[in-house]
Amino acid sequence: MLIRLILLFTIVPLIELYLLIQVGRYLGAFPTIMIVFITGIIGGLLARSQGLSVQRQIRMDLQNGIIPTDGLIEGLFILIAGALLITPGMITDVFGFFLMIPGFRRWFKNRLKERFKKRFEAGQFHFYSNYRTTEWNKDDGS
User: Fold this and answer.
1) In angstroms, rounded to a whole number, what is the distance separating the alpha carbons of residues 106 and 98?
2) 113, 55, 61: which is closest to 79 by C-alpha?
3) I want to staple 119 with a disulfide (CB 3.0 to 4.6 A). Which of 13, 97, 124, 132 is the partner?
4) Whole-angstrom Cα distance, residue 116 to residue 111?
5) pLDDT, tens digit, for every residue of 27-85?
6) Where is the chain membrane-spanning (predicted)?
């Protein structure tokens, strides 16, 4: 897992940098900078509007006594999409915009749930915790 993260945080920025340089060569520096700037602004606005929509849905679910698991997952996807759209780059923008599309989020959420379910049923999914309990005795007043 650590190797994947190292590759993700080194290879993706290098590819992004390469793409920005190529786009800059083709369009020029100013248009390239404006593309990055505009996608960042649009991404922030989209994340805000989509996030507020999901927040309303979560609030309604809670008021109706429903555990809002799907809403929380969609909220996480919107948070990730917003971060990707604010990050300068072309690849991150494409993934960010895809995560902003509600239909794609639903499809991705269902795929992720299926994957976790299969791994859990196969015994390949483990939870690790450093949680420790302390003994509390009502009689000693602690």
Assistant:
1) 11
2) 55
3) 124
4) 9
5) 999 999 999 999 989 988 988 988 898 899 899 988 988 888 888 888 899 999 989 98
6) 5-21, 27-47
